[in-house]
Amino acid sequence: MKNNKLVIVGTMAFDEIITPTAESGKILGGAATYIGLAAAFADADIAAVSVVGEDFLQEHLNLLTDRGIDISGVEQVSGGKSFYWKGKYHDNMNKRDTLDTQLNVLADFNPIVPEKYRDASIVMLGNLDPNVQQKVLDQLAPNPNRTVLLDTMNFWMDLQLNTLLNVIKQVDIITINDEEALQLSGEANLVLAAKAIHKMGPAYVIIKKGEHGALLFYKDQPFFAPALPLEKVVDPTGAGDSFAGGLSGYLAAQQTTNATTIKAGILQGTAAASLCVGTMGTSGLVQSSKEDFFAQLQKLERLRTITL
Amino acid sequence: MKNNKLVIVGTMAFDEIITPTAESGKILGGAATYIGLAAAFADADIAAVSVVGEDFLQEHLNLLTDRGIDISGVEQVSGGKSFYWKGKYHDNMNKRDTLDTQLNVLADFNPIVPEKYRDASIVMLGNLDPNVQQKVLDQLAPNPNRTVLLDTMNFWMDLQLNTLLNVIKQVDIITINDEEALQLSGEANLVLAAKAIHKMGPAYVIIKKGEHGALLFYKDQPFFAPALPLEKVVDPTGAGDSFAGGLSGYLAAQQTTNATTIKAGILQGTAAASLCVGTMGTSGLVQSSKEDFFAQLQKLERLRTITL
Questions:
Q1: What is the value of ipTM here, to two decimals?
Q2: Minimal CA–CA distance to A47: which of A139, A124, A144, A109?
């Protein structure tokens, strides 16, 4: 029976982004937004679970519904304001400072997975309070072929480590950046960090290294996917979410999770991230067609191939 | 007619290396040493061109001759002292400070390429004063199928930029690390840096990123080779030289230089570098058999392969 359902939980938000060369003003952002837009390049049946305020416009929701994403699990709170984040990137674009965070409606977010999607094969827990991630897991109907992916960041390690570790136990695939992998594991080396994180639960540990690509560790066998070399990075915001979206969308479409589909999925995630970072905010993903996406995938294959 | 001759010019030296966990004492080092030992994994006819002092022991020279490397171009200066370098690595092993440099016999080095090797197909100009690199080029006999490789570093950009640029003009392949590629080109982005360096002469620009692998740029088409993820890096000294050695040895053995052999050669260089950094100084290369080398190559293939 076909089950290409993908449930995504994450923020839908407004961002204000300052880079060395530009200021975005208040624009659409949020993990679920990037993940959803990136996942929609694949032939998956996608539902977003999130919360927004009254300030979230129909045109923003349309960006998701236009891509066939089910938003019946996106709660809109009357009189509420959407989650807001303001950040500034350093000169090399590899580091950023958070200038402002306003949780707003996110503070009381009680996620509801739509009935139709409770048996989803793929569940993508976007970077979010691990208590919310757990509530999503608690609502799922049994599915022996389910794959659960989790993305997280240092913020939750600092504030909610025990809850986070409990969620990580239930997860098949974790995506985490290199510095955060070291922090979570307490190791100073990525290979040792991956081994330690395996022991926390996930069979597949994916370490994101930004412009330096991504490493998958599975049964101590590493796989590496390079990032596409780009002449210009406009805004790295959402690159990790786009990566998770490309990967989880592909796994849902394949209806099979194993080392081979995950590796191929990492390349899909890499392609999505490359479309994301070339423009400000979500516009790179929004403006890209499936053809644009496949063109990035082809560039990635050439980047990896010895004999042309 | 078979011509698998490889001429290497570079230092042969004594190093003293301090890492966060170890001190080497005075040990064998030098670019030509690392390059020669790494190149010798391939079926190439290798000659080293260098200069050493009276303090250079027969046992050190034997390490090269035992691998079949011709050292008739290695001048030993009676009463002279060998080049000496002392350096200390930072905690993350990615940066190092030079604590002491004594040029000694290197100050008056006048390289002589042995007659038999003047028609070599592959010439590897190791990191060295570009005036010496030029003198080697000046002694070569014509060979329309020759490939010249050059490795260099920021020191020569600071001190001998014009001479270096003149050598770079005559070179087919340049290997250079990421920071130095930015410095040489004046760009802030590696893709743009590679384009600028292409214009200086080399058709093939290889940017070394250490633990993050290596990027080849050829006709604006990039190729990426990942580094092997390692649990322990003992001493990064000579990794770049080992990379250049693995690459140049392979090209000499193949007797064909094109985008495909260069890409494959980059993997050979990566495998050699992975053997180098796991131990202090040259001992990793010295203790490794061809079987050890091929085992690293196989690990690299698994690291790059989706379907196992």
A1: 0.93
A2: A124
* DSSP β-bridge partners for residue A206: A175, A216
What would the two tokens of residue B210 be?
A: 């250490």
- Contact B93/A at CB under 8 A: no
CA B105: distance to chain centroid?
A: 21
Closest CA to B257 of B114, B154, B168, B143: B143
SS3 state at A296 = helix
Given B209, B304, B307, which is nearest A212 (Cβ)? Answer: B209
Per-residue pLDDT tens digits of chain A, which is 308 residues long: 789 999 999 999 999 999 999 999 999 999 999 999 999 999 999 999 999 999 999 999 999 999 999 999 999 999 999 999 999 999 888 889 999 999 999 999 999 999 999 999 999 999 999 999 999 999 999 999 999 999 999 999 999 999 999 999 999 999 999 999 999 999 999 999 999 999 999 999 999 999 999 999 999 789 999 999 999 999 999 999 999 999 999 999 999 999 999 999 999 999 999 999 999 999 999 999 999 999 999 999 999 999 86
Set of chain B residues whose Cβ sits within 8 Å of the Cβ of A267: 306
Instruction: Kindly list the residues from chain B whose CB atom is less than 8 angstroms away from the CB atom of residue A304.
Output: 223-224, 304
Q: Which of A189, A229, A263 sits opposite B215 (nearest CB)?
A: A229
- A239-256 burial string, b = 16+ CB within 10 Å, else e? bbbbbbbbbbbbbbbbbe
B44 to chain A, minimum CA–CA distance in Å?
A: 22
Flag if B260 and A190 touch (Cβ within 8 Å): no
* Chain B touched by A189 (CB under 8 Å): yes
CB contact under 8 A, B226 and A229: no
Phi and psi at residue B146, in whole multiples of 5°? -75, 145
Domain B5-304: which CATH number of 3.40.1190.20, 3.30.565.10, 3.30.210.10, 3.40.50.10420: 3.40.1190.20
Domain assignments of chain B as residue spans, ordered by start: 5-304
